[in-house]
Amino acid sequence: MKIAIIYHSVSGNTRSVAENIRSGMTRIDNVEVKAMSIDEIDDDFVRDAKAVVFGCPIYAGSLSWQMKKFFDTTNLPLAGKLGCVFATANHLGGGGTVGELTMITAMLVRGMLVYSAGAAEGQPYTHLGAVAIKAGDDWQQERARIFGERIARKTIELWGDASEKS
Amino acid sequence: MKIAIIYHSVSGNTRSVAENIRSGMTRIDNVEVKAMSIDEIDDDFVRDAKAVVFGCPIYAGSLSWQMKKFFDTTNLPLAGKLGCVFATANHLGGGGTVGELTMITAMLVRGMLVYSAGAAEGQPYTHLGAVAIKAGDDWQQERARIFGERIARKTIELWGDASEKS
Amino acid sequence: MKIAIIYHSVSGNTRSVAENIRSGMTRIDNVEVKAMSIDEIDDDFVRDAKAVVFGCPIYAGSLSWQMKKFFDTTNLPLAGKLGCVFATANHLGGGGTVGELTMITAMLVRGMLVYSAGAAEGQPYTHLGAVAIKAGDDWQQERARIFGERIARKTIELWGDASEKS
Amino acid sequence: MKIAIIYHSVSGNTRSVAENIRSGMTRIDNVEVKAMSIDEIDDDFVRDAKAVVFGCPIYAGSLSWQMKKFFDTTNLPLAGKLGCVFATANHLGGGGTVGELTMITAMLVRGMLVYSAGAAEGQPYTHLGAVAIKAGDDWQQERARIFGERIARKTIELWGDASEKS
Q1: Distance from C89 to chain A by nearest Cα, in Å?
Q2: What is the mean pLDDT of each run of 10 residues along chain A (166 residues)?
Q3: Is D142 within 8 Å of chain A by CB?
Q4: ipTM of this model?
Q5: CB C115, CB C150: distance < 8 Å
Q6: Beta partners for D62?
């Protein structure tokens, strides 16, 4: 079961959170994860992926324009896939959840199934997705890993079959 | 396959759109739909439903406080179900999509899988869900029916089995 | 009293609404309005302007990436000015108000005073700003003019002096 | 110059942030501030106030339904006043900025002039308003005070006259 993580990162913070999410996903069996920058997308991998996670830094209170450009112009077939988000902000109140919501809007327009686990699986809550201040403190980093784990489990639950679950 | 529609309606406009969505869903085989007001929820039906659609009028530019109260206080088990939205506004620019986005936020927090079909199934587009001005003109009413049809089809696709599909 | 309108337009629809807003503003005395594309900004005019109105088309359910790029990268001194928005969408439910809200977010981060008149001046309501489907039908076009009129009047009210009011 | 703070608080966290904002406002001369719960609003004071600050806890990822009910049903004359927001969430990524944006939407519909200072006055940034985790750590509490100070200064700048400035 393939899962793609597509991120925009300049400072490296968002890439670092992407790496934590990827790491958490590998706790689940039968999942193959690939994290890639919006500048170096592996189209074939995304095409085959059942879930795609998007992440970007917050600029001017919402998603970075580079990430918006990606959503506005991509031809990747995203419809029907599970879609999830994360964001990195410079401070509390910087707009992490607003940026996530703007990505979610684009993903719904593209026909994705949007999922975050929210508060449904207990602590730590990931309301719209994993938010971190810069690359995240220890708790935020572990939350990103747990977020990855939950997404991977949901992907398997939706589309995995018995044989794949080893 | 059960699908619930939960709406808040005072003037009857939102109930009328709910009825159009319900009507469109019945175009799909093996789907049992029940539309209910937030004041008269059939808890057992919602518990069994695989998908739940929420709709409300727009007050002060976003979801009605009654619908927000529902989301803030409900104990219904919504996690893991498909979640969809619609809204009725009094005029273009009244906040239909903002209200939908605020409902979607609450639904993600509750652990739902949010889906709208967006632009992925061609015209008519239902970006975040079906929006209507008051009860909707002919085109908006038919769009609500098509929206219902798409949601029902996706629900069957995700959780239906061969035997259920007659 | 200078007022700038900055828009992103590809098809010409958003420019057309900008022109209607500009036209409405000229109904008010002592106002000098200039509408300009984000590609051809008159920096000096914007610097002197007391109010700046921003408008763009809706892409993927929110503001166009080009408009987001403008907000993310501009060095124009916007703080303290009145800020207003408008948007053009292709259909009802396309995300006009979501796009407006994302622009408003960026404008607040830049320190602007955001204003729309909303429902406070009676019909036609302009909740977050003027929304039009494509270039707007007659009603939407006139609403754009009235929106312009209200913004111009508010700008004079806040910063005009007796001598300027002729 | 009167400034009102209207908050919804159950645990006391939001009231505590309101108190910090009030405290910061008193650093500015000629400002009279009153903080009040949505259950005990001093209508006369609000009517006379030039600025009103609204704050609430985040429920299900956005503003509390009680605060939404206030905005949907109030008859208070808010049009033309400066409007500002703050929010308290239980954790980073809980929806502080989404809740602020939903309040801002309602305030624009009511005809207010929305302001936050954003990033325009340097650190600490208050993008859409002051957000705190629960009652806020030391930094968040001081930021709330600075936010109050900035709002009070802007209110004086807009509507104060020389004689008032002592």
Answers
A1: 13
A2: 98 98 97 98 98 98 98 97 98 97 98 98 97 97 98 97 48
A3: no
A4: 0.96
A5: no
A6: D59
Tell me the nearest-neighbour CA distance from D102 into chain C, angstroms: 9
Residue B68 three-state SS: helix
- Own/partner contacts of B43-47, CB < 8 Å, gap of 24 or more, are B43/B76, B45/B2, B45/B4, B46/B4, B46/B6, B46/B76, B47/B76, B47/B77
Asked if C110 reaches chain A (Cβ–Cβ under 8 Å), the answer is: yes
* b/e burial code for range C14-46 (CB count within 10 A of at least 16 → b): bbbbbbbbbbbbeebeebebebbebeebeeebb
Phi, psi of A42, rounded to the nearest 5 degrees: -90, 90
* pLDDT of amino acid D165: 43
Q: Which of B97, B108, B125 sits opposite A114 (nearest CB)?
A: B108
CA–CA gap between residue D29 and residue D3 (Å, rounded)? 12
* C104/D119 Cβ within 8 A: no
- D34, two tokens: 């009153």
What confidence tens digit (pLDDT) does each residue in B41-90 have? Answer: 999 999 999 999 999 999 999 999 999 999 999 999 999 999 999 999 99
DSSP string covering A43-103, please? HHHHHH-SEEEEEEEEETTEE-HHHHHHHHH-----TTSEEEEEEEESSTTSSHHHHHHHH
Give the one of D98, D124, D133 whose C-beta lies nearest to A98's C-beta.
D98
For residue D105, which residues of chain A lie inside 8 Å, CB to CB? Answer: none
The yes-or-no verdict on residue B161 having pLDDT over 90 is no
Residue B164 in this model has a pLDDT that exceeds 50: no
Number of C-beta neighbours around residue B69 at 10 A: 18
A52 exposed, middle or buried (CB, 10 Å; 0-12, 13-18, 19+)?
Answer: buried
Judging contacts by C-beta atoms under 8 Å, the chain C residues touching residue D115 are 108, 112-114
Condensed to tens digits (0 to 9), the pLDDT of residues B8-53 reads 999 999 999 999 999 999 999 999 999 999 999 999 999 999 999 9
Query: In chain A, which residues have their Cβ closer than 8 Å to the Cβ of B115?
Result: 108, 112-114
Cβ distance A60 to C71 less than 8 Å, yes or no, reads yes
| DSSP H helices in C3-160 | 13-25, 43-48, 65-73, 96-109, 138-159
In the predicted model, what is the mean pLDDT of residues B122-151? 97
CB proximity D114 to A under 8 Å: no
Tokens 């987001």 identify what position? C68
Kindly indicate the confidence band of residue C165, based on its pLDDT and cuts at 50, 70 and 90: very low
pLDDT tens for residues D104-116? 999 999 999 999 9
Interface check D20 vs C, CB under 8 A: no
pLDDT at C161: 67
